[in-house]
């Protein structure tokens, strides 16, 4: 039944006292900072923000389900998940079925903080994740002018997440910590606070008006309205939750299906298990960008559910029981797969399609691979086959892991199941893919395009890792220029009085693959902007070792001519690379 509105202050009290909780079927908090500030702007402008859906659970049934608390202090690395609520007994609670994002935004803005990674900061540094709190500029001028037709209206109230309040700028800025409104009294105490901050005259009037508006929005206006479901039937509640949320734009199909898993697992906490697995995989070495979607699809694939598609009929009770019973093995296989991918040098920057790892995970799951698979010499050939197949599938310009993904994964699963008991069946997989119109053969035109891949692009690393597989990618490595990029720029070559035509040719190719190589991190730092002949001589004083290195990396003797030898070096190495790629990709 629908209930009349209450205040935001009262709602926060219920959250703080844990009268309102989150059922396990709820997803994680996903709003960004601009959505939170936009939400507060809407509140200040009196916009309606929807009705909440609550599930009232009686004391005799509250012990039947698992609950979570609302996030107050969000931390991008260590505090992204809702904290688990302890056991509840002998008291009534209200579980929030719809409204978590809005209520969490209020909880963070009015009681907590948000910590996001600084751009370019290393994750392990102390100040990589500064704590931001919500502030309101009380002197931001409220414009009543409507936005031009066809354009979205901008925010009128200037809410921002800041580390600390900024200094008062007369006529422009006076930043108020929004959480202070909870303890603030209306009237004289507000005026006194502003006067103590140095405001007077027009600034004082403008700031007081904004602060009084904020106070009324939080303490006075009955804006929290909700529908309360009282049925103890979980199936009914889950049906309401899915029907209500399936029309939303932020809740994906996998979020809804994740809710079904959470509600149907009997022994394990699905929400906690899936979240911790995603976190662990994403923190392997240089890091990945695995998601809940990847884990759900992996669960369907590894347990041999008929189809790997995100369809409700695949998430039946028997299928979910099968997934729960095999969860430990699934987890081991997915962790091993992520470690194997990292050994191949893959990470969130160059792994364009995480779905490409699912056939590998299925294979490792079927052979019940253990940690020793990653390093034991008896598996070296198998790892090599997996690496060549995986990289080829990622390099294919037509796109292997796009359209028809579920059909392809189901086909590859059947192929591995039928032929992959002793070793990774790369040949059989290639044959099956070709039959489905997704061949892994490369013609000369495709190789030519590939050789034009430039520094910093995912395909560049992938191709170099295939060309020179002896480079140990388990350690830190860099994609580096053979001829220093800084010496091949137009301005530098112009200083040497080169013809414009030659400058154009050389500078236009300085970042392409024939001028790139894989170097260990320490070697790359050591090389810096040194010409290749000088670096080779210093790195390998022994002529035999130097010649072996040049031969292995397709670096001919032409580098000895300095910058004047770049064209000959580039064309010769491009031809050698082309021959190698045609051979290894079509093997």
Report on the structure:
The chain has 23 helices and 13 strands. The strands form 3 sheets. It has a 6-stranded mixed sheet. By secondary structure, the protein is an alpha+beta fold.
Explain briefly what this protein structure is.
The protein is an alpha+beta fold and 587 residues long.
**Low-confidence sequence ranges:** 147-151, 247-251
Please identify the structural class as seen in this structure.
Answer: alpha+beta
The main sheet orders its strands as 1-11-3-6-2-4
Shape: flat
Q: Strand-residue fraction?
A: 5-15%
Q: Give the overall pLDDT as a whole number.
A: 88
Radius of gyration from CA coordinates? 30 Å
SSE map:
Elements: E1 2-6, H1 8-16, E2 20-23, H2 33-44, E3 52-57, E4 67-68, E5 73-75, E6 93-98, H3 100-111, E7 113-115, E8 131-137, E9 159-162, E10 175-177, H4 188-196, H5 201-219, E11 224-229, H6 234-245, H7 253-264, H8 270-282, H9 292-302, H10 317-325, H11 327-343, H12 358-366, H13 380-395, H14 405-419, H15 426-435, H16 444-451, H17 458-467, E12 477-481, H18 490-495, H19 500-507, E13 516-520, H20 521-527, H21 532-539, H22 543-552, H23 566-585
Helix pairs in contact: 1-3, 2-3, 4-5, 6-7, 8-11, 9-12, 11-12, 12-14, 13-17, 14-15, 16-23
Q: What are the key terms here?
A:
single chain; 587 residues; alpha+beta; six-stranded mixed beta sheet; five-stranded mixed beta sheet; 23 helices; 13 strands; 45% helix; flat
């Amino acid at each position: 039944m629908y209930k009349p509105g209450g205040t935001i202050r009262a709602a926060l009290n219920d959250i703080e006292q844990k009268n309102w909780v989150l059922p396990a079927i709820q997803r994680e908090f996903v709003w960004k900072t601009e959505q939170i500030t936009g939400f507060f702007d809407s509140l200040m402008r009196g916009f309606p923000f929807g009705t909440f859906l609550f599930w009232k659970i009686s004391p005799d049934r509250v012990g039947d389900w698992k609950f979570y608390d609302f996030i107050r202090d969000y931390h991008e690395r260590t505090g992204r998940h809702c904290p688990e609520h302890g056991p509840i007994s002998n008291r009534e609670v209200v579980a929030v079925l719809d409204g978590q994002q809005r209520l969490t935004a209020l909880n963070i803005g009015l009681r907590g903080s948000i910590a996001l990674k600084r751009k370019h900061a290393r994750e392990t540094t102390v100040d990589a994740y500064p704590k931001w709190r919500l502030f309101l500029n009380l002197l931001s001028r409220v414009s009543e002018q409507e936005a031009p037709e066809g354009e979205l209206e901008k925010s009128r109230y200037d809410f921002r997440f800041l580390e600390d309040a900024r200094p008062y700028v007369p006529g422009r800025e006076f930043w108020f910590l929004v959480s202070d409104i909870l303890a603030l009294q209306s009237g004289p105490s507000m005026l006194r606070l502003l006067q103590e901050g140095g405001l007077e005259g027009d600034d004082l009037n403008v700031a007081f008006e904004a602060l009084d508006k904020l106070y009324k929005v939080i303490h006075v206006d009955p804006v929290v309205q909700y529908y309360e479901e009282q049925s103890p039937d979980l199936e009914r509640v889950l049906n309401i939750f899915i029907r209500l949320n399936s029309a939303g734009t932020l809740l994906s199909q996998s979020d809804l299906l994740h809710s079904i898993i959470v509600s149907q697992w009997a022994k394990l906490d699905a929400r906690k298990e899936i979240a911790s697995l995603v976190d662990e995989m994403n923190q392997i070495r240089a890091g990945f960008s695995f998601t809940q979607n990847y884990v759900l699809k992996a669960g369907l694939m590894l347990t041999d559910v008929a189809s790997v598609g995100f369809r409700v009929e695949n998430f039946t009770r028997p299928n979910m029981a099968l997934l729960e019973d095999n969860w430990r093995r699934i987890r081991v296989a997915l962790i091993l797969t992520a470690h194997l991918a990292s050994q191949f040098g893959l990470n969130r920057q160059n792994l364009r399609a995480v779905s490409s790892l699912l056939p590998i995970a299925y294979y490792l799951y079927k052979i019940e691979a253990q940690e020793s698979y990653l390093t034991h010499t008896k598996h070296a050939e198998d790892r090599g086959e997996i690496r060549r197949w995986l990289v080829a599938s990622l390099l294919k310009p037509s796109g292997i892991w796009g359209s028809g993904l579920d059909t392809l994964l189901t086909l590859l699963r059947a192929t591995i199941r039928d032929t992959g008991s002793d070793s990774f069946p790369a040949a059989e997989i290639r044959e099956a893919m070709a039959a489905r119109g997704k061949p892994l053969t490369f013609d000369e035109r495709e190789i030519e395009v590939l050789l034009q891949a430039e520094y910093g692009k995912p395909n560049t690393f992938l191709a170099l890792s295939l060309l020179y597989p002896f480079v140990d990618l388990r350690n830190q490595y860099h994609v580096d220029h053979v001829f220093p990029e800084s010496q091949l720029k137009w301005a530098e070559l112009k200083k040497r009085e080169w013809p414009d035509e030659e400058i154009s040719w050389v500078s236009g190719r300085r970042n392409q693959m024939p001028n790139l190589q894989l170097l260990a991190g320490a070697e790359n730092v050591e090389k810096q902007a040194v010409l290749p002949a000088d670096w080779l001589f210093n790195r390998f004083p022994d002529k035999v070792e130097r010649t072996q290195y040049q031969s292995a990396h397709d670096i001919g003797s032409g580098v000895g001519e300095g910058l004047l030898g770049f064209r000959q070096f580039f064309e010769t190495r491009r031809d050698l690379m082309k021959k190698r790629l045609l051979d290894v990709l079509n093997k």
